[in-house]
Amino acid sequence: MKQLTALQQQGRRSNSFRNASSPLDATVDGAIKSPATIFWLVLHGLCCLISLVLGFRFSRLVFFLLFSTSSSPSATTIYSALQTKLPSSGVASTPERNISVGAGGSRVVVGRHGILIRPWPHPDPAEVMKAHGIIERVQTEQRSLYGVKNPRTVIAITPTYVRTFQTLHLTGVMHSLMNVPYDLIWIVVEAGGATNETASLIAKSGLRTIHIGFNGKMPVLWEDRHKLESRMRLHALRILREQRLDGIVMFADDSNMHSLELFDEIQNVKWVGAVSVGILAHSGGSEEGELPMVQRDNNETDEKKSEMPVQGPACNSTNHLVGWHTFNTLPYLERSARYIGDRAVVLPRQLEWAGFVLNSRLVWEDKLEKPVWVKEWEDVDRDGEDVESPLSLLKDTSVVEPLGSCGRKVLLWWLRVEARADSKFPARWIIDPPLDVTVPAKRTPWPDAPPELPTSAEKVVTIPESMEKRPTKSGSRRKRSSRSKRKHSAKVLDDRLSIRHPGDN
Amino acid sequence: MRFCMWAVLLLPLFLGSFGVEGIEHGSVRTERISGSAGDVLEDNPVGRLKVYVYELPSKYNKKILQKDPRCLTHMFAAEIFMHQFLLSSPVRTLNPKEADWFYTPVYSTCDLAPNGLPLPFKSPRMMRSAIQLISTKWPYWNRTEGADHFFLVPHDFGACFHYQGVLTKMSYRISSDTARHISYRKNNVGEEKAIKRGILPLLQRSTLVQTFGQRNHVCLNEGSITIPPYAPPEKMQSHLIPPDTPRSIFVYFRGLFYDVNNDPEGGYYARGARASIWENFKNNPLFDISTDHPTTYYEDMQRAIFCLCPLGWAPWSPRLVEAVIFGCIPVIIADDIVLPFADAIPWEQIGVFVDEKDVPYLDTILTSIPVEVILRKQRLLANPSMKQAMLFPQPAQSGDAFHQILNGLARKLPHDKRIFLKPGEKVLNWTAGPVGDLKPWAYRARVSLVLPPFQLLRA
């Protein structure tokens, strides 16, 4: 017993293993080597080794487990002893040293406290929902305090037509518009008449939509397409005028990308506003289509790397509109895309419609409220005339308000990406009947020839249905391994068309 | 217990002792905070009191600061800035006969270890020496034995002059790598020792302006003024983000949960409360808590609805100041804490108080607060006078913490006639306290830093 207490006393020293040698010396020198001594020595050594492995004295833990009565079971727990980094025990709900503070009987006690853990320390789904409700409410309050006061309805005008990439583009625009926190009217003008395909797509949005058909098939040449789109937008404005819709008109082309800040910013417009549009006319990875924004005289070699060109208002230092940022497309016209599906870069026009925002009252009929510098609708809406941008609606372009901290912020991006005009896709993207023909990646089912242009002769032969689309930009690379199992389909090469594009596949 | 907490939250509303009205502050709706005596936060102390600043030799203040300019940026810098403020303030008087309060500029928290933490070992002697000087050079100390004097003691336990826990306390501002050599086996020796020391006997009658505040604690005297810890205002204001950024984090906390250097087994640090937070809520997606040191700490606080301010080795922390500045509702987990300017700021209406034993149910507590209450708290926090009261801007602006200290001192006027002693009457015991404190204090120019850190163990 004496040896036990002696060992216990030694065990209480902070680094018990450090003193392993001294008790050995003490006991070996003194007493006779009785089996009891050896046994206690061995036990002590064993305890020291275990402590060394664990990294802490486990004697207290052992004593607690052996001798203590149960502490409150639901509130405390014991850690695994093998976790040396983290604290090793969270026991003892009663503090070890009970030194109460002050004479006032404070309930704060100095000393060691237990770490309280509830029996199931995981989130309760009902509480998580309540918390989300709180967050929603706080954000609504924030918006009403710091955001836009008296928000006006946003009217988005989108020209579209049925083609392979329509679903891709329109889904993007639809989701952006669904996230706009203001009232929204979506006017979708469809070339070639209103179809069920488009109608089913936009019905998924849950927004208030006006789906209008427009007579006239979308042409294959980009120039003609741009012109038709302008006419479609004018048609939408005509509808606005007839129905006297009130709000802020913005032009959401279906392949553009809009940031939600744009919708907050256009709430500030009074009559006509302009935002900066980033032009993503950069071809993916190829030498074509490097469009530097401004031709600088002192061109450092690093500057050659494409800065994205931006179209938008230009301001002087007092934040007044002094001009327009645009870029000269003439040097690139030879290398640009001419028809839809051309692999070259699609160039925008001087100032795209997408960069402008109008107050819908500008096109209304009543003469009273309109400012003096707006043209009469009848002057603008003349058939056959190409309205290149909303600036044609104005007599005086200096009244345009620059938005987005005077055009410094790019709030939307302009992009034109299309598959070939004759590419096919399953209607509404439902595969019915199931595919029986598969196509390998290396050989495309249709010839690498440009499609029928209005001046050339016959039509191209039909192409079997396939899930693959061939974008004008060769940016995306398909994994050959995933398609290697697919078989080559029947030959579809048309011998009549012999033009081949180099650098294929 | 939760009912009691609710009662505490709702009682002030019913009693109406603190009245709040909604006003339009520009275009943002904030609520005016008024105490029972009116808008005490916006009181102007000029004209209500006069302070005389003793001219002490520079070894008590300037030379110490020159020795270590880090004192100007750490959490305890309030003592230095208060001195600078008072020197040029209109409440200062050069005529001690008309002064209501007397200020002794002693920088007792400026003796820093290499890792930046203050060493309080010599502070009692320094204070004693200063008091001996003013009691012999001027008659005003002996007149009242210090009852109309005030001192700034912003260190951990105020005028008990001891550090909490150990010198290896980790904080955002101070790296603890070098401090790993210093460790004490017994972790709570800091607070116990501070309690045993008690407030320096010579300061028993003076008004102490300190950051430490805990009810029924030896180191907090009746009548002390609690102040917030110093946080650099420019640094916080340079990280402001637009107020319309939506608050999407529910609960936010960055800091230690376990102090592995000093308290590896847990249970001492923060009385186990921080560890409890970690264990209960580390899997909870509503709680954005971790020990990271992100560069976007201030920006994240502005995107959070609740910010946890649990106790650490001491009940107070700069997190409270940061939460108030960034509009995040502070969740104060520290039993019996006394918050800064508690008589002027209705903290129960602004923050959420959670008992340490209720920490495992923190998520239930926070999600069951009604939304209107939360919105109201946010409106109170948005009040600019609230934010000003927590800051020590350079130069001083009206309504800031300096002025709140003066307001607090002004509210204690006029002095009770009984504090004036009869000539020859002595109340203070000049020989009380540990023997080490009675040794004279001499300023030593720094040759090399006093002792290598590990020798402190043997001292």
Descriptive overview:
Chain B: This is Beta-1,4-xylosyltransferase IRX10. Chain B: Pfam families: Exostosin_GT47. Chain B: Keywords: Glycosyltransferase, Golgi apparatus, Signal, Signal-anchor, Transferase, Transmembrane. The complex is a heterodimer of chains A (505) and B (459). Chain A is α/β, with parallel strands linked by helices. Helices cover 26% and strands 12% of the residues of chain A. Chain A has 12 helices and 14 strands. Chain A has a 7-stranded mixed β-sheet with strand order 5-4-3-6-12-8-13, with helices on both faces. In chain A, strands 7-14-9-10-11 form a 5-stranded mixed β-sheet. In chain A, helix 6 (166-178) links the parallel strand 3 (154-160) and strand 4. In chain A, helix 1 runs parallel beside helix 3 (35-54). The longest helix of chain A has 22 residues, at 125-146. Chain A starts with a helix and ends in a 22-residue tail after the last helix. Residues 13-28, 70-105, 284-305 and 456-505 of chain A have low confidence and may be disordered. Chain B has 459 residues and is α/β, with parallel strands linked by helices. Chain B is built from 15 helices and 12 strands. Chain B has helices spanning 2-15, 62-67, 78-87, 123-137, 140-144, 189-197, 233-237, 273-281, 297-301, 318-325, 347-350, 362-367, 371-382, 384-389, 401-411, and strands spanning 20-25, 28-33, 51-53, 101-103, 149-152, 207-210, 225-226, 249-254, 287-290, 304-310, 329-333, 352-353. In chain B, the strands form 3 sheets. A 5-stranded parallel β-sheet of chain B has the order 3-4-5-6-7. Chain B has a 5-stranded parallel β-sheet with strand order 9-8-10-11-12. In chain B, strand 11, helix 11 and strand 12 (352-353) form a beta-alpha-beta unit. At the A-B interface, helix 5 of A face helix 6, helix 8, helix 12 and helix 13 of B.
